[in-house]
Specification:
369 residues; mainly beta
């Protein structure tokens, strides 16, 4: 006969055994669910449906195919939030999830056939404040990034496709790499409305964010080919930019020292352009051969505005009469004072093609009377 004590003591051991079996089975079930979610196409479709539910319908993924572990393809990705409208067609991703165990993200390919985007305008311009850090928590290697066509639209209350186009980029292709602390664009190329652009560079993720980059823009204007080259150095808080231009009726160079996060966003601007013919850009404009030199420095204004001030000279190597579509002066020199609301030319000297000259000051307020 079983004693009451042993009967009572056996019941807890039976329950404990069931709890242990359940505890051992639970991780296995979670692992199986994770494998199904990541490694099967039905898991990808379930994840796409879950994204729509959790976002309250603001995110939608149409025609998902493949696996979350890659490769995968999304027919259409749509995001419709109060401040953002995004539509991505033909999205394809191939990546290596195993890199996550080494603290990195490895992307073999991330491309889209078409991207349309619109953002709601802000009531006030955003404050220009420098970032505290650009360091990433993981490393990144992206071997192939691409967009067939990227269109930035105006913000409207209607459908994104019906909104007007603000800017378009085509055939964008890039490669990028980062160790988390330093980020590098190994190559980036895209077709812009005014030419083909190429860029490569790197930036440190720690302040003051030292950077170095080079870029080129090639194109044609009214049948005249041109090429612009850019070199950036310094850091993100005070970048230095050098520009060289050649073709399309001009050649020359310029230097700029910027301060993008300060009240005066430009500290200095120097330009030296040679033999510029305005008629090359607009046939109805005067024909000339202008050599332009400017050396402008930033100045603060009492009203809180900012200004550029310094000497400007324009030499005309081929003066001609106005009725022969020319410019009748040989040299213009002045001290320019430019603000967004007002332009002044002080100590102006305009030497005419003959023996005459014009002197004085010019004060112009755009939109003023």
């Amino acid at each position: 006969m079983t004693s009451p004590v042993s009967a009572k003591s056996g019941l807890p051991r039976w329950r404990a055994a069931r709890l242990w079996r359940a505890a051992l089975a639970l991780p296995a079930l979670i692992a199986l669910a994770a494998v199904w979610l990541v490694l099967t196409e039905s898991g990808l479709r379930a994840a796409a449906a879950l994204a729509g539910v959790l976002s309250g319908g603001q995110v939608a993924l149409e025609s998902p195919a493949g696996r979350l572990a890659g490769p995968l393809r999304i027919g259409v990705l749509r995001i419709d939030s109060p401040d953002l409208r995004l539509r991505v067609e033909g999205l394809a991703l191939a990546w290596r999830p195993g890199a996550l165990f080494d603290g990195g993200i490895a992307i073999d390919e991330l491309v889209a056939e078409r991207v349309d985007i619109a953002t709601r305008p802000q009531d006030e311009p955003p404050q220009r404040t420098p970032p505290e850090s650009l360091v990433l928590p993981v490393s990144l290697a992206a071997q192939a990034l691409g967009i067939g066509r990227l269109t930035v639209h105006e913000w409207t209350d209607g459908e994104l496709a019906a909104a007007g186009s603000v800017f378009e980029i085509a055939d964008l292709a890039a490669r990028a790499r980062s160790d988390g602390g330093r980020h590098r664009i190994e190559s980036l190329a895209a077709t812009l409305p005014f030419g083909r652009a190429e860029l490569a560079g790197e930036i440190d993720g720690r302040a003051p964010f030292a950077l170095s980059a080079s870029a080129a823009l090639t194109g044609a204007n009214k049948g005249h080919e041109y090429r612009l080259q850019f070199v950036a150095a310094g850091d993100l808080l005070a970048p230095q930019l050098r520009i060289e231009a050649e073709g399309a009726g001009l050649s020359g160079d310029g230097e700029m020292l910027a301060s993008p996060f300060e009240a005066v966003p430009l500290r200095r601007l120097r330009l030296a352009l040679g033999d510029l013919d305005p008629a090359v850009f607009e046939p109805s404009a005067p024909r000339a051969a202008l050599r332009i030199a400017a050396d402008l420095s930033a100045q603060g204004e009492a009203q809180g505005d900012w200004a550029l001030s310094g000497p400007v000279t324009v030499e005309n190597l081929h003066p001609d009469a106005i009725d022969r579509q020319g410019l009748p002066f040989t040299k213009l020199a002045a001290r320019l004072h430019w603000t967004p609301k007002r332009v002044r030319a002080e100590d102006l000297i305009l030497r005419l093609a003959g023996a005459g000259r014009i002197t004085g000051d010019v004060d112009w307020r755009p939109g003023g009377r």
